[in-house]
Each structure stands twice: as structure tokens, then as C-alpha cells.
Design brief:
There is one protein chain. The protein has 116 residues and is mostly helical. The protein folds into 2 domains: 57 residues, Four Helix Bundle (Hemerythrin (Met), subunit A) (Up-down Bundle); 47 residues, no CATH class. It has 6 helices and no strands. The longest helix has 16 residues. It comes from Chloebia gouldiae (Gouldian finch).
Length: 116
């Protein structure tokens, strides 16, 4: 008898293959073994592991945490507020056209002001 599986569980094998966590014979690679130790989705775990190797863990960890949560840049329903929200996001991206940089800079601003 088939049991119900959540969509997340059904997507997991595909994610494991796309991050090179398995070899062609479907055995775990070294990366795959490390990913099994992390309590995050495979693509986020790979980001974190590469950040350790490249010595840029702090900003990448912030971005990975932000990606694991609901998008903080949810657009409002009113047109005038949408424009303001889009402009705010562009300011956080600071000309990089990067959603990841916008997330990082938004976190840095909030963290900075919480310190006061």
C-alpha cells in the first residue's frame, strides 16, 4: 500500500542529484556524506560547505538562512506600495541585480539597527 509523501520528500532525490551529492551509480559522494550531516536542503548545505572552503562563511550563512525562510521582500497588494517595495529591494541590491545581495544587505541593516 502506498503511503502519502510530502512534496518536499518527493523533490529531495532530484535535489541530491543536482548538487552532485551522488555519483552515476547513485552512491553518495564525499559531498553527499557531508550534506547528510546538515539539517538543511541539499542546495543550501552545498552553499554552506563551499563557503567554509572559500572562507566566506559569514555572509553565505546569512544568505542561506534567509533562503530557508519566507522571502522578506513580499510585495504588497497596492500598486503604490509595490513600487516603493521594489525600489527598496533595488536599493538593498545596490546595483548588483542580485537577490542574494539584497537579502544580505537587508539583514545587515536590521542587525545594525537592532544593536542600538
Amino acid at each position: 500500500m502506498l503511503e502519502f509523501q510530502s512534496p518536499e520528500l518527493l523533490r529531495m532525490p532530484l535535489q541530491v542529484h543536482t548538487v552532485d551529492a551522488m555519483d552515476p551509480w547513485e552512491d553518495l559522494t564525499e559531498l553527499g556524506y557531508h550534506l547528510t550531516e546538515l539539517p538543511v536542503e541539499p542546495h543550501l548545505g552545498k552553499m554552506v560547505l563551499y563557503a567554509v572552503v572559500l572562507k566566506c562563511l559569514d555572509p553565505v550563512l546569512t544568505i542561506a538562512c534567509a533562503l530557508a525562510c519566507q522571502d522578506p521582500f513580499v510585495l504588497p497588494t497596492l500598486v503604490s506600495q509595490k513600487r516603493a517595495a521594489v525600489l527598496c529591494r533595488k536599493r538593498f541590491a545596490a546595483g548588483t541585480f542580485s537577490d542574494h545581495m539584497a537579502l544580505l544587505r537587508a539583514f545587515q541593516v536590521v542587525f545594525h539597527f537592532r544593536a542600538y
